[in-house]
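CHAIN AND CONFORMATION:

***
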Amino acid sequence: MRVELPIKRISNYKNIVSDEVDELINLAKELKGLRVVHVNATSYGGGVAELLYTLVPLMRDLGLDAYWEVLEAPNEFFNVTKKLHNAFQGAYVDITDSELELFEKVNKENAEKLNLDADIVIIHDPQPYFIPLFKEGKFIWRCHIDTSSPNKIIWEKITKKAAKKYSKALFHLTEYVQEPFKDIAVEFPPSIDPLSDKNKQLPEETIKEIILKYNIDITRPIITVVARFDPWKDLKSAIDVYRILKEKVDLQLLIVSAMAKDDPEGWILFEEILRYAGTDPDIHFLTDLKGVGHLEVNVFQTISTVGLHTATKEGFGLVISEMLWKGNPVVARPTGGVKVQILDGFNGFLRNDVKELADALYDIINDSSLKEEFGRNAKKLVKEKFLTTAHLKRYLKVIKEVIY
């Protein structure tokens, strides 16, 4: 299924990163008219969809014939791919022969019915990974997962079967690269869009309306966690951190999330986390089930005192860059891509256990000059490394290498 996309203009980014825009226009000259298709599992929920909603329209504006196709699949397929996702991150899971047959069958069906006649096909994550087995062309695999220590049995069973069909494999960090991709791997961090509804500067009136609608008290400190309901995000620890802090500080915890359509497990965990939180009125669950969209997430991050990220595994964690872009420090566990966004003692703190996380948050909440210093550093780092324009430049360079 092809995704309908908005029009975006690369010229609109001139005020933020002028030199990078000029470089992108020059890079794209040789690629004009090139047909590029991105393929992933869902058009809504999760970081991949958000990235593509910006990157694909900007590729078009630069002159590429770019579009985005989404898999058509039954729920049983996504139960299998969730297992693959967890296995790629190192979990022990049992995947049966019949489940693997379903995975292959759905990939074959999509290879035949999606419009994949393009110069370059970019496959995102495990769900459409087998498509190149059933379709001729030049393929790039874009992995958004922390594969630093995968479940080797399942990793090898899946990746080896189609690895030779790919010209390049893109990973957030070099430490995620495993065989059979070492010879074709590229380090490829993702990005946030500074002009999107989630990241643009909002009028005060909009901020006030949303605060009022969701009954948030901005006179008290606010800790915000933005994360899917996923076991790796360890949201119970976020609640534990809040409870430790609550003994010393009168604060609120915002848990902000979207329910990804390709993640049936998320609904079960959502109910479990709700029960764990109990009836504390200062723990706010703010999801799309309550009408939370990108503007609302923007407001929640903007009004936050400090961000918290308790994931035990994290491919990258763009929600951290989003929070940093609003000039707010973040306290997080030092895992995966978190480590390149938060520099300990520069724009936040990296800590492991719940007590350490709570202590680090307390230090920021109680030292306004430290919070301001971290906030300035936070925005500067994201501007230099993790905006859309830098990401788009990486894509154009890789596409050029594959084509020429």
